[in-house]
Amino acid sequence: MTWSIIAKDEATGQIGIAVATRFFAVGARVPYIAAGFGGIATQALVNPYYGIDGLALLREGKSPQEIVETLTAADPGRESRQLHILDASGRISAHTGRDCIPWCGHVAGSGFSIAGNMLSGAQVLDETAKAYVANAALPFAQRLIAALKAGEAAGGDKRGKQSAALLIHGDEEWAALDLRVDDHADPLAELERLERVSRLHWTTFRAFMPTRANPAGVTDRAIIDAGIAAALARQA
Q1: Rounded distance, CA 81 to CA 72, Å?
Q2: Which of 152, 180, 217, 221 has the greatest CB tally within 10 Å of its CB?
Q3: Are 120 and 154 in contact (CB under 8 A)?
Q4: This prediction's pTM
Q5: Is 90 helix (H, G, I), strand (E, B) or coil?
Q6: Residue 234 — φ and ψ, nearest 5°?
């Protein structure tokens, strides 16, 4: 009841997932990312353990194909599930069960994977892919949202729209960006607005947060405030 894109930003190495649906709080159950390893989207009659156990398998070094085979083999409900995976090296695998509601399917390109079910038609994924490729000059978060907006314009979820989400991880275990629109009349427009808001403070502030390499991060508020002020001045 959803379509999603998983992609790797070649410029930064970040892994991102953007997803939209006519269902409540899609960001709480569909996207999963393990920093440095890859991303998983579990959808249709969603099985959260595809994400939870799939990330563990990614961390063990299993390939996306091995992970899809392992997860679906253990699940008697696999024919009602949809799953796709992109790892940090760009390998992709997907599963769309026979009982997923049409239109359903999967497309992939260099550095991205797109899957959906209960869509208005194959054009939703095709247009999502075309927009992702065409907008390579955009910052990663904006590029992912633009891709979903193109899919929505091509018909999107055939039942309508309700929620959307954007999850991006860089080098750290915590998300570089985690935006969720749980219940909204125009969720992608709201997601786009939230992404703009994130650039006012969050995308600068996160550079001062603790990392594995710098466990304290930056705690001098004067430095933090100056950094945010400089970033806002550049945006003005």
Answers
A1: 9
A2: 152
A3: yes
A4: 0.97
A5: coil
A6: -70, -30
